[in-house]
Specification:
It is found in: Membrane. Belongs to the cornichon family. The chain is mostly helical. The longest helix has 34 residues, at 60-93. It has helices spanning 2-15, 21-39, 51-57, 60-93. It has four helices and no strands.
């Protein structure tokens, strides 16, 4: 959880000075969710997905849905960033 939080935080912070306010606003709620989850991990757990707790409380399906939503977000955002990069390269080449 820590490396994901740091990477997403740095990406979100970099988007603001480079003047990408829409991408910043898209990433801000996801960063807030990462921060909330990181700060509220119960004491004694190994992390967000503690193996013993997932099976004890029947949270496996909820965590799977969360992971699929996160994967979908990152996949969509990847193609948006790729489009922005190609657009910028085409503008500089002309």
């Amino acid at each position: 959880m820590g490396p994901e939080l740091v990477a997403h935080g740095l990406l979100t912070i970099i988007l603001l000075p480079t003047w990408h306010p829409i991408l910043f606003l898209i990433n801000l709620p996801v960063l807030a969710c990462h921060c909330y989850r990181f700060w509220f991990i119960p004491r004694g757990h190994l992390g967000q997905y503690d193996p013993a707790e997932i099976h004890n409380h029947g949270d496996l399906s909820r965590h799977m849905k969360e992971s699929m939503a996160k994967l979908s977000f990152h996949l969509i955002i990847f193609f948006i960033y790729l489009y922005c990069m190609i657009l910028t390269l085409l503008k500089k080449g002309s």
